[in-house]
Design brief:
CATH topology: Nucleoside Triphosphate Pyrophosphohydrolase
Radius of gyration: 15 Å
Helix content: 10-25%
Distance between the termini: 43 Å
Oligomer: single chain
């Protein structure tokens, strides 16, 4: 039986800006492209705990899950590594971004800037979901 993975993506919001990271040139998959915090669920780990762990490991900040916003199926490395991806919208709580070896740069961008970044195209649908979700929130709502 082929191994099956659960991938996690953390779309973290702080003051109407979202954290994106540039993958290191040393990464074997999609080097030098922008992404939110991503990672894999560990054995016997709850997905919400897993996404918070990945955030701590990759950028060293604290965040709070707002809600899961999407799921998808993805094959990393052709058909060799099937993954189900769970995408989370999170609220930044505290800390300074401290990148791990997996990323070379970071920046906080608006939703419009995220949608303009071509190397973030695999995550555009999730950023658009957040735009739609925000349409349902009261104008005075602050995350």
């Amino acid at each position: 039986m082929k191994p099956f993975y659960v991938g996690l993506a953390a779309i973290i919001e702080k003051d109407n800006h979202f954290l994106i990271l540039k993958r290191s040139s040393k990464k074997d998959f999609a080097p030098k492209t922008w992404e939110p915090v991503t990672g894999r669920l560990e054995r016997d780990e709850n997905p919400e705990n897993g996404v918070l762990r990945e955030i701590e490991e990759e950028v060293g900040i604290k965040a709070q899950v707002v809600m899961p916003i999407d799921t998808s199926c993805f094959y990393r490395g052709g058909q060799e590594f099937p993954m189900v991806f769970i995408y989370y919208w999170l609220k930044y709580l505290e800390g300074e971004v401290n990148l791990s070896w997996e990323h070379s740069e970071y920046k906080w961008v608006t939703l419009d800037e995220a949608l303009e970044e071509s190397t973030l195209e695999h995550f555009h649908e999730q950023f658009q979901r957040i735009i739609k979700l925000k349409d349902y929130l009261p104008k005075e709502f602050i995350l």
